[in-house]
Amino acid sequence: MKKMLMAAGVAFVLGAWTNVSAQGVPANGNPFLAEYTTPFKVPPFDKIKLEHYKEAFLKGMEEQAQEINAIVKQRSAATFENTIVALDQSGKLLSKVSAVFYGQNSANTSDEMQAISRELSPLLSKHRDDIKLNAGLFQRVKFVYDQKSKLNLTKEQAKLLEETYKDFVRGGANLDAAKQAKLRELNSELSMLELTFGQNMLKETNDFQLIIDKKEDLSGLPASLIASAADAAKAAKLEGKWLFTLHNPSVMPFLQYADNRALREKIYNGYINRGNNGNKSDNKEVVKKLVTLRLEKAKLMGYKDYASFMLEDRMAKTPEKVYALLDEVWTPALAKAKDELADIKAEIKKEGGNFEPEGWDWRYYFEKAKIAKFNLDENEVRPYLELNNVRDGAFYVANKLYGITFTEIKDIPTPHEEATAFECKDKDGTHLGVLYMDFFPRESKRGGAWCGGYRSQTYENGKRLAPVVTIVCNFSKPAGDQPALLSADEASTLFHEFGHGLHSLFRDVHYFGVASVPRDFVELPSQIMEHWVFEPEVLKVYAKHYKTGEVIPAALIEKLEKSGKYGQGFATVEYLAASLLDMDYHVLKEVPANLDAMEFEANVMNKRGLLKQIPPRYRSTYFNHTMGGGYTAGYYSYIWAEVLDADAFEAFKETGDIFNQDKAIKFRNNVLTPGAIDDAMDMYKNFRGKEPGTAPLLKNRGLM
Length: 704
What we know:
Pfam families: Peptidase_M3 (PF01432). Helix content is about 55%, strand content about 5%. By secondary structure, it is mainly alpha-helical. The chain has 4 domains: about 1-175, Neurolysin, domain 3; about 210-270, no CATH class; about 320-380 and about 565-700, Orthogonal Bundle (Neurolysin, domain 3), CATH 1.10.1370.10; about 385-535, 3-Layer(aba) Sandwich (Collagenase (Catalytic Domain)), CATH 3.40.390.10. The strands form 3 sheets. It has a 5-stranded mixed β-sheet with strand order 3-4-5-9-6. Helix 2 runs parallel beside helix 5 and helix 14 runs antiparallel to helix 22. The longest helix has about 30 residues, at about 320-350. It starts with a helix and ends with a helix.
């Protein structure tokens, strides 16, 4: 059931593959309407054309509607099998095409794909509501739910029944006809607004260009970044110039190293004003409408605010618990950020400057302060973080922990020509799944990094059907004669997304309705992987100089360790600022008719004493995590999960062996494998033996 109810635009789409028509490709050539005959039954990306999507979506909705009608109209009394399981297994064609379309719409979109998504948005919203608000279907679901104490269900079956019933109630099944009609209207509007927000953000990111034609304006920039900018300019037919963009591998190192303060200011303002430029892609009105309609929906459902509605089925449960955690970390983080600001001011003074630092100065002077304190320039580390080596380092950690292996597959369709594919096998040699990796930015790819799926793990005819997982990033491209060399942050991101990938590959459940863990638990498997990336015994395996093959020197590892917590004031404050902004929007009990997103944001930040040099990690008009619908009233989840992951890694450290097999097996069996069969905190306690505290998190970030 949950696979059908997921918002269409969420990056991680839980798809389902099965035989949906006659064997072979049908006469019209639409690959979605036949069983895939590719290796491991991955999508035949090379055969899929734009016109295939709409046809498959329409047929998929039609088929599922027929399946739902058959459940409702059957004469037999409702049972777990003929109602709950039948519902959970319905809509396989729709899930099949959804997984591919929304995966590609995020990673390799086009104007045509975006037009299709806008056309389909109201149709899919109506289709979801037709199921959630089907009185006859809910009557059957409720009948089974009311009999649950008499049924001999397994733990997994009992959880599926509970989740299915809850999905209907939260989907409006208990509302009267008038309120259901209003809910349909709101869902359709919200779906389109979330889609519009993301499309506007992508356009704003792609439209900005900083073109440099004077070599002296490149002063301070690393050779690799200059080469990348030259390649970008050449691709844009700007021969002899250098092109910088708002994609992270371009804008962030520019802000970190460019000596030209005026140019730093220009690209910084371009970055923080995306969606706030008064043009056709301006998102301020979209934010206002989203916040207003979400509150209206929450009140319609009987909640005081939208955050209360969203948090009800998460670990946090209430806004008060979220704020308690955010506030606990905010105070020491802000104090640490003020210390870092003092260091920045000292660097400005050291250079003879006499000005108050601004946002475009922070990364630049912070880098100088770090070099002064620790004698560590990030560019010393990059040559040891060649992309393929870092990827193999992640594979190494997974092998050491779980015994699994990854082998590249060459002769297989891929979602994009830059993507690579790997087969994952368990320690006994059985097939666990296929993993795609797609690392570099392009105009057709949205920003950030994520893990998604082109097929979710399921069971078919009693056998486990393995998942097809994709990791998508926006890392620094190869430039000139250099391969892709990652920053320390990019290396951590690779390990992070790989952790999500392991979660998908290890999952072993029989029903889609128990596959998805709560939003504030989902980051535990990813964030715990980040703890291994810079462990000395791991670095010695994968961190090798791209030219000489020399293993990273012990002295450089020592510098990394000493400087590892420096900068956590800035990093924690910018993250918490965005988390608080997300929550403050969604705890509103009334939305002013004249709400201005930027004024609201400024008030939120000023109230909490945010330093003017640190904007929230995501400002209102490009905060796709919350406005796009994936992490609405949920951006706090990263810090919530960090409480878990910091404590969980302590479990390994306490044994004296970061690859302790007993702990790894317990983590796999209790956290990575069971989906949402158990409650989230129970899963954690089954692994750790106790609930976590915040001390390991504060220690991990250097905020004790």
